[in-house]
Amino acid sequence: MDPRTPVRRTTMTSTPVRVALVGAGRIGAAHAETLARRVPDAHLVAVVDPRPGAATAVATPLGARAETEVDAVLGAADVDAVVVAASSVAHRDLVVAAADAGKHVFCEKPAGMSLVEIDEARRAATAAGVVFQVGFNRRFAREFAQARDLVESGTLGEVRQLRSLTRDPGRGPSDPDVVPPWTIFTQTLIHDFDTLNFLNPGAHAVDVVATADSLLFPGHATLLDHATVVVRYSNGALGTAEASFAAVYGYDVRGEVLGSEGMVTMGEGASSSLRVHGQGGRTASTAHSDTELLRDAYAAELAELCAAVREGRPPAVGADEAFAAFAVAQACIDSMTTGGRAAVATSVLQEA
What we know:
InterPro entries: Gfo/Idh/MocA-like_OxRdtase_C, Gfo/Idh/MocA-like_OxRdtase_N, NAD(P)-bd_dom_sf. This protein is α/β, with parallel strands linked by helices.
């Protein structure tokens, strides 16, 4: 959303923002608990999920009502905002429907499954004058935010190289056939693409070279479970994004910025500062899920939604950032398809 575009203020600025959550899966359940228990300016009103019993299992312990149809909350007078945590293929339609109903929207990444879908969601929110925030949680993780501050202050000098990685815990998918094609770019590395963009303010991605393969199921027709991407930026900086679906030691998220005057690193996957030193060496407890490692970041991004709604302003991360990150993901798909360097779109017209 253009920061100059006014956002319609909720009618209840002195009370918590009333939120309905759509999607009661793993991340939806985590968001529901966060909204109900860790965000003082939010009031979880309802949970929506079409699967029998799914919404009830999440909503009842949190004192919210359960619904099976999204229209039940889009037309509800006691709902100010909708948090979309349903399947990614439904994100565009849910964002547009919520905006058309006059509800503010928080949408998990990606905000759509193509640049056209994301642009349609952006246009719907702008036309309705509602807040449209996208769930790029690393921007709200303290270490990553502090690294951005160092870059913006000039402490690191000119940005020259950046790195971001995501390694999912475990040994990979139990059934590779159920993983949609290009998931590693559009669902996993989308966070890293946004992180690289976030840590290189004022610059935009120009082109990428992507390499990926199935190392867990060699020869699989569509699964890509390990990937390395090199991104070239308009300020000359080079970014590297890496992803793996199988880190047996835990959930691993890290970043790095190398500048002309110094370097900053962030993230190591440790769930605490406790270190055990014994005959087997030095060990640390590591996080085994995103909701564990980034617990505070999830709370902070939902608190930002409520603040933007109550203050009548655009959120810190919205449709433009969602578009920019997905543009890198699309360029990775293009690079893999052609086997060479692929340009990063800056508008839907360039994508067409």
